[in-house]
Amino acid sequence: MQMRNLHWQCNASTQPGVMPRFYKKTLLRTTLLALLLCTGAYYKYYISKLTAVRQYEGKTRMMHHASEWNQTTTMEEWNKTIAARKKHLLRICQKYGKPQNPNVLTKDLTPEILVSEIHQLIYCAIPKVASRNWKQVLVMLSGKSNITDISDFDRLNIQVQKPPYPGRYFPALRSYSEESILYRLKKHTTFIFVRHPFERLLSAYRDKIAVHRDTHFYRPIRIKIVSKYKKNATVEQLATGLGVTFPEFVDFVIDTYRSKQSLDSHWMPYHQLCEPCNIQYDVIGKYETLENDARNFLELISAKNVIFPSTAKHASHAQEYIKEYYSQLSPKAVLELWQIYSLDAEMFQYDFPSDSWNLFPNKS
Predict the structure, then answer these.
(1) How many C-alpha atoms does 148 have within 13 Å on its Cβ side?
(2) Is 183 helix (H, G, I), strand (E, B) or coil?
């Protein structure tokens, strides 16, 4: 009898639909172990991508500390820095088959590309990169205003983003004929100021979305985010859009980009907003070196009498805010967000911020 049972067990695996209990348990354990290993490997994959993505060969990290905001360079040194930035941008444009050629510009130019005729300037006003201050400068340089001190704008509560300043003082480039656009791109001095895309995105969120007051202009966007992404939203939140968290805002930006809808100018990528591969910008300034770049640029255009407002006070809190807000995101969300702005980062020499910003201290 024992021999017969043993014979049956040995041949059970060959009988269709029959599996001994021991083998079932072993298979179940093996499957569970495989799932755990796969999950761990998947998570490690994202972590590794976060620390390795976009490691540009030979680049110097451009994340500046607060002490660097007050650095001063001579005009000769500054010209070399600007030339290096322009050369790098041209190389990246060529790398992706987008050589700088103003003749391929279309009528799709964004309204943020502005013209100052008096000093023959073309400026791409990127929101959250001191664009309000530069618009104030353009108003002063226009010669059409009685304002002689840039501090008067804040003292008199003059909003340069509202009429009559846009159009009258700095019309959009796209408002000209195609022939006039090409002429001005050849004759005028073009300039742009950029900052790390993640810092700019956070600044836009804090200023336009994470408000403690119900501002009307961005209310529709906030309501849309609350309706789609906030769980258990209150009646007040659904009506006003208040209380949007940073992860909810990031999900909104990612989904909007995926669906190929146009992003708001405050978080639209630079390469879409300013056409840097079609407009050959003469000066590429950076928010991290804003005071030095602004001072030298104003000297370049013979406007040394204009004193650009100091922004050094913002530098000390930048890193704290980055860690506070971006650590709220999952590694997957950070990676997807980086994919939106990675071309901007490559064009203007910004690295993926995982090391310096310490985004995931408790997620290793």
Answers:
(1) 2
(2) helix
Amino acid identity of residue 308, one-letter, is F
- Return d(Cα 227, Cα 57) in angstroms, integer: 43
Tokens of 274: 């300013």
For residue range 97-123, list pLDDT tens digits in order: 887 777 677 667 999 999 998 889 999
The secondary structure of 2-47, three-state, reads HHHHHHHHHCHHHCCCCCCHHHHHHHHHHHHHHHHHHHHHHHHHHH
Q: How far apart are CA 301 and CA 309, in angstroms?
A: 17
**C-alpha 151, offset from chain centre:** 28
DSSP H/E element including 257: helix 246-258
Is residue 193 scored above 80 in pLDDT? yes
Distances (CA, A) of 67 to 60, 196, 223: 17, 17, 39
Q: What is the pLDDT of residues 247-271, one digit of tens each?
A: 999 999 999 999 999 999 999 999 9
Residue 43 pLDDT > 50: no
Question: CA–CA separation, 363 vs 13, rounded Å?
Answer: 44
Residue 42's pLDDT is what? Answer: 46
For residues 271-294, one letter each, b for 16 or more C-beta atoms within 10 angstroms of the residue's C-beta and e for the rest, the string is bebbbbbbbbbbbbbbbbbbbbbb
Q: Which two tokens stand for residue 52?
A: 């390795």
Residues near 312 by beta carbon (within 8 Å), at least 6 away in sequence? 66, 69, 70, 291
| CA distance linking residue 139 with residue 165, whole number of Å | 7
Q: Which residues of 350-362 are buried (b: 16+ CB within 10 A; e: fewer)?
A: bbbbbeebebbee
Nearest 5°: the CA angle 217, 220, 224 is 150
Say what the pLDDT of residue 93 is. Answer: 95
Q: Which two tokens stand for residue 286?
A: 């950076």
Q: How many helices (H) and strands (E) does the chain have?
A: 16, 4
Short-list 264, 114, 287, CA closest to 193: 287
Strand partners, 284: 192
C-alpha dihedral, 178 to 180 to 184 to 187, nearest 10°: 120
